[in-house]
Amino acid sequence: MRSRRVDYVESTRQALVDSALDLFTERGYAGTSLDAIVKRARVTKGALYHHFSGKQALFEAAFDLVETAAMNRLTEVVDGDGAAWERAMAGIQAYVDVCLEPSYQRVVIHEAPVVMGWERWREAEEHFSYGLVRATVEALVDAGEIEPLPVEATARILFGALSAGAETIASSAEPKKAAADVRRTIVAVMEGMRRNARL
């Protein structure tokens, strides 16, 4: 049996992260104060410091929350039923959909490289996203869907393209149009690697 205290501690931490995520999405990192976060979470500043060393630590927890939710959705799609090619195409669509979400755009794409630093952000992105891209490429090669290119190099190049696509969508004045363009372009690149494309 879990104690009420454990439940309370976890619910307090979750309330702080949810509150921080909402405010970082609405106002950005610089525009969000710790006072605003604790007020929205309905906890004291002492409770905040019990869980987090400060605003950056809270930001990183919010970043992890957004990335984990996104990767869970994408993993479900690319590990689902159906042929490897169809799952990869569905994965691209799901990724583009994620890139249209305000919290993903603001927290993961715009704010994280500045708040966390470029290198730390890239490490985090690799931790969350790269493995999924590599597994998808490996599945396509194993299924004979794409040319037997070196998996590591192919995954790195596609990972770079997807990252650039996310930035394109998040920075566009017309994100839905940009998302459609990014999806079409990445699919065209993938089609070019397809084994039966030359048949």
Low-confidence stretches: none
| Strands, count | 0
Gap between N and C termini, in Å? 62 Å
Q: How many helical elements? A: 9
Total domains: 2
Considering the protein shown, what is the CATH homologous superfamily of the largest domain? Tetracycline Repressor, domain 2
- What percentage of amino acids are in beta strands? under 5%
| Broad CATH class of the largest domain | Mainly Alpha
CATH fold-level topology of the largest domain? Tetracycline Repressor, domain 2
Order of helices and strands: HHHHHHHHH
How large is the radius of gyration? 19 Å
How much helix, percentage-wise, in residues?
Answer: over 70%
Coarse morphology: elongated
Topology summary:
Elements: H1 4-27, H2 34-41, H3 45-51, H4 55-78, H5 84-99, H6 102-116, H7 118-142, H8 151-171, H9 175-193
Helix pairs in contact: 1-2, 1-4, 1-6, 4-5, 4-6, 4-7, 5-7, 5-9, 6-7, 6-8, 7-8, 8-9
Task: Report a brief summary of the structure.
The protein has 199 residues and is mainly α. It has helices at 4-27, 34-41, 45-51, 55-78, 84-99, 102-116, 118-142, 151-171, 175-193. The longest helix is centred in the middle third of the chain and has 25 residues, at 118-142.
